[in-house]
Amino acid sequence: MGRAHTAFASGMSGGPSFIGQDAAWREWTGAIESERMHHAWLLSGAKGLGKRAFARAAAAELVREPGSKTPDPLTHPDVHILEHLPANDDEAKKKADGKPFQTKRNITIDQVRRMQQRLTTRPTLGSRRAIVIDPADDLEKNAVNALLKSLEEPPVGTYFLLVTHQPGRLLPTIRSRCRILRFAALGADELDAVIRRDVPEADSASREAAISAAQGSPGMALTFVEQDLGRIHELMLRILHEGDADYHLRGALADEMGARPTRERQVAALELARSVLVSELAGSSRARQLRIIEAHGTLSKISMQAPTYNFDAGLLIMEIGGLLASTAMPRETAR
């Protein structure tokens, strides 16, 4: 796990300033100031748009007492964040040491129950309490059912922020009890502003490649820049457009990835491959679109496994290259 990518920074007044998501922030702060604020919110949009950072900033603003400074949402007693826990004790030690760590696949019912036990008492420092679930898409089935009870009868002063990348995966009964706050993809200029702010040393070629591949996601754009995927992006595009009958481009792709790439670099390469496939859909023939969709589906399954599975790095990048080659024009069947 790397650092959390954000699309916001502190504004001149001390509050957060969101690149590309200022409208969502205005809607949130306007709701806080209203007399009847809805008790549950869905922060909905694709991965990498800044929903995680927004949820934490929104929770901090919610519990902030009038006239006081904005608190740290990670330490405030009235902000409760439910997210993926470390996969085991060894991974928990890595987290405690500030090292990258692997997580469990789901947010568990035990986490929801512990949160609900806290709801039996009043907020500690003020009149409001924020519950952030990030992402709600990954709640266990029993955890969803348990959460529904809290959403149906929310304690006074308790507000829920559910981060969701795929709201269709949530139960209709969950969605119907939430107000939706939508997060839009960023434009090229906005992505460029995020990269220049967070990775000022990035050269123009790296920025252009990241913007092209990120599909409007600042989180993905920053990952591509930080993982130095510009050359990999170029090779992926060549495979898509030229095919790779002699495996030459796939070999170059493996060399560029390196013999021992980090898990973060592997995950970033998977996300990059998915992005370049999506960018090829428009203008392709129906037959090629079907091949692209099939390859994208396979990459999506691998991406879901990547955070917890130990893939052989060489085999993984060859698989990625083969899937890209299977969609190439002229067509080449992946082997």
UniProtKB/TrEMBL annotation:
A Pfam family this chain is assigned to: DNA_pol3_delta2
Source organism, top-level taxon: Bacteria
Name of the protein in question: DNA polymerase III subunit delta
Organism expressing this protein natively: Novosphingobium indicum
